[in-house]
Structures are given as C-alpha cells and as structure tokens.
Amino acid sequence: MLLIDYVGNTPLVRLDRIARGRVPSGVEIWAKLEWFNPGGSIKDRAARAIILAAERAGIPEGARLLDASSGNTGIAYGMLCAARGHRLTLCIPSYANDERKHLVRAYGVELIETDAREGSDGAIRRAQALAAAHPDRFVYLDQYSNPANPGAHEHGTALEIWSQTAGRVTHFVAGLGTSGTFVGTSRGLRAKNAHIQCVSVQPTGPGHGLEGLKHMATAIVPKIYDPTIANADLAAPSAASFELLRALAKEEGILAGFSSGAALWGAIEVARTLTAGVVVTVFPDSGERYVSQASQTAMGSLC
Ligand code: PMP
Q1: Number of domains in the chain
Q2: Cβ of 70 less than 6 Å from ligand 1
C-alpha cells in the first residue's frame, strides 16, 4: 500500500459519556475521528481527490499546483504532493500559526503569505490572481469550487458512516468550511436513505475562533456550497463549543480541535429534540494541532 491509500476509513466512536445526561437516553451520538488520516485531518480526503482529479486532467510539465488554505488543506496537499512528486504553491494568511507554516514548509511547499487583515478570503483572492496572471505556470486546484472536494465525501465519508452504523444513521451533523464535508456526505447518505436528516453548523458571526469554519453571510461563499441540502442550519456559539471540547477531553478522552466543538454542539442540539435516533458527526482534526494557540484563546485550560 502507498501512503495515499491510507486516507479515509477513520474510526467512528460512540460518545456515550458525553450523551449521558445531555440528551435523551434513546439517542446515540457518534463521531468520526478524522485525525486518524495520515496528514492529521479530514482535509486529506479532499486533497487526495482533488490531486488525483488534476492528474487525470493532466498536469503540464513544469507547472506547479496552486491553492489557498489557512491550515489543514495545506498540510494535506503538502503531504500528498510530496508523495506524488508534484510541486505546490500555497497562499496562506500571515496569521496562520507558526506550527502550520513549519509543517507545510517541511513538505517542501512554497508559501505565499497574505495580509492578515484580509483573512482567509485574502489568500483566496491572491491564489485567484496568480492563477489568472500565469495560467501556464499554475494548475489552480480551487478547493472551494472543485467538485472533487464534495465528491471525496459523497463516495468516501458517507459510505463509511453508512457501513459503520450498519445503515442505522438517522441524522448527520457537520460544520461548514468549504462545505465539502457537509455537502458531499449528505448527498452520499441521502442516496442510501432519503430520510436521513442533514444539519449544517456555522459560527454565529465573523471572528469566531472556530478555525476551519466559515460564517457564510460574511465570507466568500464557496461555489460547491448548496444550502438547500440542509434540513436545518445551526449557529454554534464559540464559548459553548469550547466548553464542550473541554468536556470531550475530560469525559471521553478525546482531544479534538476547535471546529469539533461546534460539530459536537450541533449534534447535541439535534439529539435533544429526539426521543430515539443515531446522530453522526465528524471531528475534523485533533486538539494537538492547536496547543500553542489554545493558551491564547477561550480554550485556555484545554491543554
Ligand atoms: N474543521 C477544520 C479544522 C477544517 O480544517 C475544515 C476545513 N476548512 C473544516 C472543519 C470544514 O471542512 P469542509 O471544508 O469540508 O467544510
């Protein structure tokens, strides 16, 4: 097996102790632990599908792959581009933490840092401008518009959830970043059972601290985002999400990243309205990825 073959097939674990006392006893909450991917996050799935699609379309001799990312996608691209022999240029907002930048550079990626005040949208605009100015030098992967991103989840994550729950899943809850996870997994699950309820989770506003998630009303809306897929869309308060992350570490032994707190908050909100059901969510990355940041944020006491 090659490294790339180990992307996906992550564990699905039942959150028994978190559920107890928080949701009705007939409702199960399960989470997929996506840091079991070789690059440490859910973005290995999208990066793998996007890179393989670019290879199929043909990468011109000497061209570099190009995209924007503030974190996990960059690491996933870096790892897989090294493994596949591609050169990669990544536009990254300058506020991305040093660990991220070091990790990406370790894979031999060329980093272009963009103005922190423009946020992740500034990195996207720079990548778009570079691709437009030098079409022969770059193959622009554009994870926000690339159908291979939701495709990875429709044909991967969703089928895993279906088989790991033996078809018992009744609700799917996920945070929105590029929206690839939510859109693709929901499509794949609904193809198995049209009655599965799919609920998206967003931050309550900009400047939320839930790294990896987007507040769609104030951000560049990804082309792959289809809001009509969701049966409901919930706004996760950051403080409550961080509180649940701390509980998850102490009660379940699961140290997850910021956006997992919002996903768990959403899963619990959904579970509370039910008397019976199997609610599945996705934890995109591990809390270890945020150790240096955690001390400067509301996560404070997590690490
Ligand atoms: N959480 C984290 C930590 C992420 O890096 C991402 C990807 N931006 C997401 C959630 C959202 O995933 P998606 O892009 O598939 O919507």
Answers
A1: 2
A2: no
